[in-house]
Design a protein that fits this description.
The protein contains four helices and eight strands, in the order H-H-H-E-E-E-E-E-E-H-E-E. By secondary structure, the protein is an alpha+beta fold. The chain has a six-stranded mixed β-sheet with strand order 4-3-2-1-6-5. Strands 7-8 form a two-stranded antiparallel ribbon. Strand 2 and strand 3 (74-81) form a beta hairpin.
Amino acid sequence: MTKLSMLTTAASLAMAFAAPVAMAQTPSAHARMVLADHSMRASMLIGMKVLDDHGQVLGTVKEILVKDQAVEPTAIVAVLDLNALATRLVAVPLSHLKVEGNKVMMPGATKEMLVAMPLYDYEGGGPGR
């Protein structure tokens, strides 16, 4: 085999193996975040910015909690409290988040509303102080 053909073969193999990995890391496709039965993939939602009706960032999805009963899943959202200059965790029902294209929206919500919610406490398993 010549050097040129070996180099071409190696480059082709490298691209063939890299393409699926690159495609798997792009969570922007709506079809992959929301399935045909309208269920949302938690793995795709975690880390996404949550936007208000005007496209302003309200916070970031940090976790999706599922109880062992027939209870609606909860999204834990990290919100920056501009008054305290700190991030606070709040729990919102997952149904309050809507996926539109590749964006996660929370219709009707404002940052002030989320900051006013009780803090979520992982240790206590619910709203804290």
